[in-house]
């Protein structure tokens, strides 16, 4: 039996310094049957010209240029509409994937399908995040450890309010840059929401979870995420995106009495990153008064890890191990 076709989708926007690394890692996959679809979202730095030249003699790859900047969700939807593969995987324009990534993800997903006979499955690759100062952290995939597979509305609870199910491994969440799923799964969920310019990957996973979807991951690290900065990653944009996500899923959040929590918790992160600690304490006090056990649990499970990460980043930045 021949291997099913896999479409590797790469969205590109002003990534002239990194896009060729991503494209080359896609073309170097050892899966025997794949195509690469690159969508340039109206870059202004010559990215599309670099890609066009790089794939001029490559029959497995094609470039699509957007006529206006539509955002990453719309670019991913263009990939979905152009894809011919039975499976579709997404690579980011500043990441690089190991040659065995596609094969490992297809095998992991297929094994879960065979074991459970469940049709809606998303498979995420484990990876590593590398910062410009050389600091690296592991990015284990959701569902890559433990005997129980994260599934259903409880995954949406985690992504919206960080509530965790005992015995489930949530890893580094549900980033689109490590996602592979069947085309039928993307169709069933409805693709990505073009109104969201950030957290569109979390929104996709939330909608999949609310349909009962299963979330599995590879145990082996299969990609390197190169951390970059930009105006679209500012604390202000992150706060706006997280609150828009909560508002989009207001009906569900109200059904579990967590809408106010989901809207206000991102403010804590915002005031922390802005170092406005008086405002942080005011917001924290208000949340504690309404959700005392939830807030304390959330802080204990995320705060120390966040502070340790920031301390290590500072030490690395100043040349200390």
Describe it for me?
The chain is α/β, with parallel strands linked by helices and 321 residues long. It folds into 2 domains: 6-226, Spore Coat Polysaccharide Biosynthesis Protein SpsA, Chain A; 232-317, no CATH class. Helix content is 45%, strand content 18%. It has helices at residues 19-27, 47-54, 72-82, 101-116, 153-161, 183-189, 200-210, 235-248, 250-255, 259-273, 277-290, 292-317; strands at 6-12, 34-40, 61-65, 87-91, 95-97, 121-130, 136-139, 179-182, 214-226. Strands 1, 2, 3, 4, 5, 6, 7, 8 and 9 form a 9-stranded mixed beta sheet that branches. The model has no long low-confidence stretch (mean pLDDT 92).
What descriptors fit this protein?
321 residues, alpha/beta, Spore Coat Polysaccharide Biosynthesis Protein SpsA, Chain A, 2 domains, nine-stranded mixed beta sheet, 9 strands
Determine Rg (CA atoms, Å): 20 Å
Strand content: 15-25%
Report the CATH architecture of the largest domain. Answer: Alpha-Beta Complex
Number of domains: 2
Number of β-strand runs? 9
Largest sheet: 9 strands, mixed
Average pLDDT metric: 92
How many alpha or pi helices?
Answer: 12
Low-confidence parts lasting 5 or more residues at pLDDT below 50?
none
Question: TL;DR of this structure?
Answer:
The protein has 321 residues and is an alpha/beta fold. The protein has twelve helices and nine strands. Strands 1, 2, 3, 4, 5, 6, 7, 8 and 9 form a nine-stranded mixed sheet that branches.
Task: Map the helices and strands.
Layout: E1 6-12, H1 19-27, E2 34-40, H2 47-54, E3 61-65, H3 72-82, E4 87-91, E5 95-97, H4 101-116, E6 121-130, E7 136-139, H5 153-161, E8 179-182, H6 183-189, H7 200-210, E9 214-226, H8 235-248, H9 250-255, H10 259-273, H11 277-290, H12 292-317
Helix pairs in contact: 5-7, 8-10, 10-11, 11-12
């Amino acid at each position: 039996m021949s291997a099913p076709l896999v479409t590797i989708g790469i969205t590109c926007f002003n990534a002239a310094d990194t896009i060729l690394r991503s494209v080359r890692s896609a073309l170097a996959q050892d899966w025997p049957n794949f195509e690469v679809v690159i969508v340039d979202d109206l870059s202004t730095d010559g990215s599309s010209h670099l890609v066009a030249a790089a794939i001029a003699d490559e029959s497995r790859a094609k470039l699509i240029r957007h006529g206006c900047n539509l955002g990453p969700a719309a670019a991913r939807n263009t990939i979905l509409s152009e894809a011919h593969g039975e499976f579709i995987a997404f690579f980011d324009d500043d990441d690089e994937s190991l040659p065995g990534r596609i094969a490992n993800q297809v095998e992991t997903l297929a094994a879960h399908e065979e074991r459970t006979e469940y049709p809606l499955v998303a498979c995420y690759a484990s990876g590593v995040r590398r910062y410009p100062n050389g600091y690296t952290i592991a990015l284990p995939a959701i569902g890559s450890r433990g005997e129980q597979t994260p599934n259903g509305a409880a995954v949406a609870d985690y992504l919206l309010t960080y509530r965790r199910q005992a015995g489930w491994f949530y890893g580094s969440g549900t980033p689109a840059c490590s996602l592979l799923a069947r085309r039928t799964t993307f169709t069933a969920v409805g693709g990505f929401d073009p109104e969201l310019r950030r957290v569109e990957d979390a929104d996709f996973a939330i909608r999949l979870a609310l349909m009962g979807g299963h979330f599995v991951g590879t145990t082996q690290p299969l990609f390197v995420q190169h951390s970059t900065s930009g105006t679209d990653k500012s604390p202000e944009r992150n706060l706006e995106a997280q609150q828009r996500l909560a508002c989009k899923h207001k009906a569900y959040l109200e059904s579990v009495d967590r809408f106010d929590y989901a809207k206000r918790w991102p403010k804590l992160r915002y005031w922390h990153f802005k170092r406005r600690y008086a405002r942080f304490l005011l917001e924290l006090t208000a949340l504690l008064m309404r959700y005392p056990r939830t807030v304390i649990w959330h802080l204990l499970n995320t705060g120390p890890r966040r502070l340790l990460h920031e301390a290590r980043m500072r030490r690395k930045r100043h040349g200390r191990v």
